[in-house]
Amino acid sequence: MIQRIQSIWLLVAAAFAAAGFRLSFFSGNQLNPATQAKEWMEYTAAQNILIMVATIAVSVASLVTVFMYKDRKRQMLVTIVTALISLVNIALYFHAKAGFVEANLDLGAIVNFAIPLLLMLAIRAMFKDEQLVKSADRLRD
Fold first, then answer.
1. Where are the domains of the chain?
2. Could you tell me if 105 and 25 are in contact, meaning their C-beta atoms sit under 8 angstroms apart?
3. Contact assessment for residue 83 and residue 120, using Cβ atoms and an 8 Å cutoff
4. In this structure, is the dihedral angle defined by the CA atoms of residues 95, 100, 103 and 109, taken in order, positive or negative?
5. Contact of 33 with 108, CB cutoff 8 Å
6. Within its chain, how far is the Cα of 71 from the centroid?
7. The predicted structure's pLDDT at residue 102
8. What pTM value is reported for the model?
9. pLDDT score recorded for residue 1
10. CA distance linking residue 75 with residue 62, whole number of Å
11. Eight-state DSSP code of residue 66
12. To which H or E segment does residue 136 belong?
């Protein structure tokens, strides 16, 4: 399980998703509707319920997928769905960024952009494992 490279990619993706609660994706000025004054705000996954649910889903799915090593096809399918959820999560962040007057991307943005990349690396390693097993099965027959 842990000796396979996709397990490492999945664990790092889960850790990066969990870091989304502490690291801000962007920070900037938002208008206060009551006073019309600009307020400085750091936007993390905890500020929006949809982003929070998507972040938790990516983190938990990445961790659960590590332990699905006996069923590589299902592991690959769950990882693909997790990567899609991660891309939706990034889109939700950019949708939330539109509500700010001025906003700059922070370190959390780099971490969130790395998650789909890490999941794609894990999918590639799973595919290589599947091809290796198929070639070994052909040799046995």
1. 5-130
2. yes
3. yes
4. negative
5. no
6. 22
7. 83
8. 0.87
9. 46
10. 10
11. H
12. helix 107-140
Q: What's residue 2's pLDDT?
A: 45
For residue 40, the model assigns a pLDDT of 85
Q: Are 89 and 97 in contact (CB under 8 A)?
A: no
Give which of 81, 73, 71 is closest to 120, Cα–Cα. 81
In terms of Cα–Cα distance, which of 80, 93, 63, 89 is closest to 123? Answer: 80
Query: Percentage of the chain with pLDDT > 90?
Result: 52
Angle between helical axes of 107-140 and 72-97 (0-180°, round to 10): 160
Q: Which residues pair with 27 in a beta bridge?
A: 42, 104
Q: Please tell me the least confidently modeled range out of 35-39, 81-85, 137-141.
A: 137-141
Sheet holding 38-43, edge to edge: 38-43, 26-31, 102-105
Distances (CA, A) of 124 to 22, 24, 64, 102: 29, 29, 18, 38
Asked if residues 62 and 14 have their Cβ atoms less than 8 Å apart, the reply is yes
Pairing mode, if any, of strands 38-43 and 26-31? Answer: antiparallel
For the beta carbon of residue 74, count every other beta carbon within 10 angstroms.
11
Give the other-Cβ count within 10 Å of 43's Cβ.
23
